[in-house]
User: What shape does this take?
Amino acid sequence: MRISGLHKIIIAVLAYLLLYFAVIFLVIEPLWHQVLSYSRNVLLQKSALKLLQDQFIALQGFKKNYTAYQEQFQKIANGFVNPYVPIDFIRYLEATADNNNLDISPSLSGAIPAGRAAKDGWQPIGFQVRLSGNIQGGFRFIEQLERGPRFLELKQLSIKKEIPQDNSPDPQNQNALFNISLNAFSYHATSTGRK
Assistant: This one.
């Protein structure tokens, strides 16, 4: 049996096609999957690198503005009262009273409730403040406390008007006694370990 030229060509073409598809499925297709896998990894690494670069830029910005942040943190820290030695707060009260020409008598008024400090970290420290002097100076004192740099809570206020000896109706000369009960706050972070 003789194979004709046309059959030889058909067999050769089929053999080349078979070899061509075998190379595609056995060699090129696995290589293609590896190329796709590597390209996905490269894209993931590029996005991770971009994220790290953004974080690095944000960190550089924080370092650049660190002194400004530190000033703000210091202002916040100064708003709290030292629960063990509240002398700075008492000096603050005395200076505010002196600025308003008032006589002042501050005193601590009770223990720190432990349950509240453990719950949210804010410890109220009770103070009793007695003022005497011009009634307008007393109101300025209270306003300065409320608008001042300290974290305070006015609990109770009582005002007793003093009767002037000369019975003058002028409000500039009217004096009063102020009894103020207030809480100044200290802060201790119980969950993070900061003090």
Notes: Confidence is low (pLDDT under 50) at residues 190-195. The longest strand covers residues 122-134.
